[in-house]
Amino acid sequence: MTGLRTTSLVLALITTALSAGLFFVWSYSVMPGLKRSSDRTFVEFLQHTNKAMLNGWFALTFGGAVVFMLLAGALLLGADSGIRSAVLPWVIAALVLYIVQMGITFGVNVPLNDDIDKAGAVDKIADLAAVREHFEAKWVRWNNVRSVVSVASFSSLTWALLQYGRHTGKS
Question: Which residues of the chain have pLDDT under 50?
Fold first, then answer.
């Protein structure tokens, strides 16, 4: 059982790290770079990226984090009380933070992505500046929030795994 707990914690950590990294990269490089681009480039890039982002790797990473955290939490319920009390609260904190990030994603960022896609082909959009205006500031603000929340989730899992190693002698 120890091996399965360790594996689930490691997989939760990896998938959460990849999600946090993705959102963070958009915060510190992609969106600041796009801020310097024309309205046409901005809208066209986001429309293409929205389509490219929806793939199996993203699904595995984004959804896998929750699955692996839930699995790790369930497996920790069967651990001895010292391990459970040292590790489970951090896994729960990571899960709650990750769910907050998912709420932001599905509640704010995805609807904005859908809006920019619904605007149509860039050649047929009469007012590219208005499409960008509707999207940019709100999307960036909430992506920055979900970046911080995702990094906090990753940090909680990191601490959980360190505590697990400490309590099982596998550090």
Answer: none
